[in-house]
Amino acid sequence: MRQSQLFMSTLREVPAEAEALSHHQLLRGGYIRQTASGIYTYLPLGWRVLRKIEGIIRQEMDASGAQELHMPAVQPAELWKESGRYEVYGPELIRLHDRHEREFVLGPTHEEVITSLVRQEISSYRRLPVNLYQIQTKFRDERRPRFGLLRGREFLMKDAYSFDRDWEGLDVSYRNMYNAYERIFRRFGLNFRAVEADAGAIGGQGETHEFMALAEIGEDTIVSCSSCQYAANLEQAQMATVMQGKSTQAGEGTTELPAMETVRTPDVKSIQDLVQFLQVSPDQLIKTLLYKTDDKLVAVLVRGDREVNEVKVKSYTSSETIELAEAEEVRLATGAPVGFAGPVGLSLQLLVDNEVASMLEGITGANEADMHLLHVRPGVDFSLEFTGDFRNAAEGDSCPRCGEPLLFHRGIELGHVFKLGTKYSDSLGASYVDVDGREKPVIMGCYGIGVSRVMAAIAEQSITDERLVWPMSVAPFQAHVIPVAVKDEVQMALAEEIYRELTSAGIETLLDDRDDRAGVKFKDADLVGAPSRIIVGRGAASGEVEFIGSDGEKVNLPVVEAVRRIREAKL
């Protein structure tokens, strides 16, 4: 394509609203334009990248045996109420009514619609297994859209759904999709990790993994082992239980420990305040936090230097929702304001983290304003009936598989694979008659990729010194031919010749035929991000050009050699 005909509007200044590098570059390069908060128009450059991403996904999904269909974005609210997710999904679910006051939602995902379709179309084991997928726009009313395409209210997504006769069949479908995802993300040229994850609002009854692109701007924390292959997101990350005082003091008893003591702590409400007031370290403290799980209050106990993992608490209590108790709820349950809750004498279910259970003694709130308790003994002064892993992993914790230290990275979630089991087939009545004549629920899997998010993640990993270099597989143009002076007949003739040769070889090439200054052309080329550039300048008369590859190295080469390198890079 000739650049004079390309609908491309570059920006010289970094837009004020752009926080992520990818957001900067995609706006500056004329890939996207914001229409409303979290809603973007894809301009020709951006759409070319997006279609290539879609193409790779389609190739691998089709190769895996999945079949493409297309479902409506507008979904009947009745389906969401039938599945039980209408209220659970919360304010992110965009609701609307038609002229007849029938209620609909804009689909953030399609489990309800696809399950409804399958219950209508499949009734016999002979039609199972099957895997159906689509690439379609989704809608979520994000409270705070940010980072451009990384967290928007309207986004493009690939979602696939497998239907099997039994769990063994689901295991095969799940591994098939897992392997397809690894191939897809490798073809994108991404630095990524597959990590154990939580199912979140999608739900499920088994294994689930997230595929994460490593990037500092990522909103997710990846916890991985420094030695083995263990990796999980922070919500799901486990750690080896390291017993503290009780393991080292086994058999010695607790009779020599000081008796529990009440100490006045006026206006000391935070962990940091208490550390300074008592001149102790945070790991000597026991935090007691009250949570409302569905309609029940529970108390979660973690060490003072740890954070409660709400996903683990939610899973342990089998709750649909979880949130910190309001100040008044804390006061009614403990008799004290927030900051002074403790487990001693508290009439709530106590969820005690493993680290707390292993402590010989600790400092807790006294359930009385401005008062704390010293020398509180877990298992003696409060119950250890409900003990488990209720905290976030911390960097340096021991790997649950091999015991080596855990490392932390930032990541962007690109894809998620779930074993749904019968969560939706039970609630929506999707069943089949098996070979034995018995009616059974179909066993489901769910597999999503954030297509527009992938575009941003690739850009995020492909920017160096304000220069964007797309991987060959998704670049809007694979080669960029730039004559320095279009009025120079020799330069322009050679540029045209190179352009024709590359195009004939099936290489998508952009020819900068604009009568503009060289500096402007080079700056725009940094934004276009073609992995190969040929600059036609003073050496044109002798058949020599400047070649810049994806590594950014500049080298003067004969035209034949420059073209050969581009051909090889495309293979």
UniProtKB/TrEMBL annotation:
<dbReference type="Pfam" id="PF03129">
    <property type="entry name" value="HGTP_anticodon"/>
</dbReference>
<feature type="domain" description="Aminoacyl-transfer RNA synthetases class-II family profile">
    <location>
        <begin position="33"/>
        <end position="471"/>
    </location>
</feature>
<dbReference type="InterPro" id="IPR002316">
    <property type="entry name" value="Pro-tRNA-ligase_IIa"/>
</dbReference>
<keyword id="KW-0436">Ligase</keyword>
<dbReference type="GO" id="GO:0002161">
    <property type="term" value="F:aminoacyl-tRNA deacylase activity"/>
</dbReference>
<dbReference type="GO" id="GO:0140096">
    <property type="term" value="F:catalytic activity, acting on a protein"/>
</dbReference>
<dbReference type="InterPro" id="IPR036754">
    <property type="entry name" value="YbaK/aa-tRNA-synt-asso_dom_sf"/>
</dbReference>
<dbReference type="InterPro" id="IPR036621">
    <property type="entry name" value="Anticodon-bd_dom_sf"/>
</dbReference>
<keyword id="KW-0963">Cytoplasm</keyword>
<dbReference type="GO" id="GO:0005829">
    <property type="term" value="C:cytosol"/>
</dbReference>
<dbReference type="Pfam" id="PF04073">
    <property type="entry name" value="tRNA_edit"/>
</dbReference>
<dbReference type="GO" id="GO:0016740">
    <property type="term" value="F:transferase activity"/>
</dbReference>
<comment type="subunit">
    <text>Homodimer.</text>
</comment>
<comment type="function">
    <text>Catalyzes the attachment of proline to tRNA(Pro) in a two-step reaction: proline is first activated by ATP to form Pro-AMP and then transferred to the acceptor end of tRNA(Pro). As ProRS can inadvertently accommodate and process non-cognate amino acids such as alanine and cysteine, to avoid such errors it has two additional distinct editing activities against alanine. One activity is designated as 'pretransfer' editing and involves the tRNA(Pro)-independent hydrolysis of activated Ala-AMP.</text>
</comment>
<dbReference type="InterPro" id="IPR006195">
    <property type="entry name" value="aa-tRNA-synth_II"/>
</dbReference>
<keyword id="KW-0648">Protein biosynthesis</keyword>
<dbReference type="InterPro" id="IPR023717">
    <property type="entry name" value="Pro-tRNA-Synthase_IIa_type1"/>
</dbReference>
<comment type="similarity">
    <text>Belongs to the class-II aminoacyl-tRNA synthetase family. ProS type 1 subfamily.</text>
</comment>
<dbReference type="GO" id="GO:0004827">
    <property type="term" value="F:proline-tRNA ligase activity"/>
</dbReference>
<dbReference type="InterPro" id="IPR004154">
    <property type="entry name" value="Anticodon-bd"/>
</dbReference>
<dbReference type="GO" id="GO:0005524">
    <property type="term" value="F:ATP binding"/>
</dbReference>
<keyword id="KW-0030">Aminoacyl-tRNA synthetase</keyword>
<dbReference type="InterPro" id="IPR050062">
    <property type="entry name" value="Pro-tRNA_synthetase"/>
</dbReference>
<dbReference type="GO" id="GO:0006433">
    <property type="term" value="P:prolyl-tRNA aminoacylation"/>
</dbReference>
<dbReference type="InterPro" id="IPR002314">
    <property type="entry name" value="aa-tRNA-synt_IIb"/>
</dbReference>
<keyword id="KW-0067">ATP-binding</keyword>
<dbReference type="InterPro" id="IPR007214">
    <property type="entry name" value="YbaK/aa-tRNA-synth-assoc-dom"/>
</dbReference>
<keyword id="KW-0547">Nucleotide-binding</keyword>
<dbReference type="InterPro" id="IPR004500">
    <property type="entry name" value="Pro-tRNA-synth_IIa_bac-type"/>
</dbReference>
<dbReference type="InterPro" id="IPR044140">
    <property type="entry name" value="ProRS_anticodon_short"/>
</dbReference>
<dbReference type="Pfam" id="PF00587">
    <property type="entry name" value="tRNA-synt_2b"/>
</dbReference>
<protein>
    <recommendedName>
        <fullName>Proline--tRNA ligase</fullName>
        <ecNumber>6.1.1.15</ecNumber>
    </recommendedName>
</protein>
<dbReference type="InterPro" id="IPR033730">
    <property type="entry name" value="ProRS_core_prok"/>
</dbReference>
<dbReference type="InterPro" id="IPR045864">
    <property type="entry name" value="aa-tRNA-synth_II/BPL/LPL"/>
</dbReference>
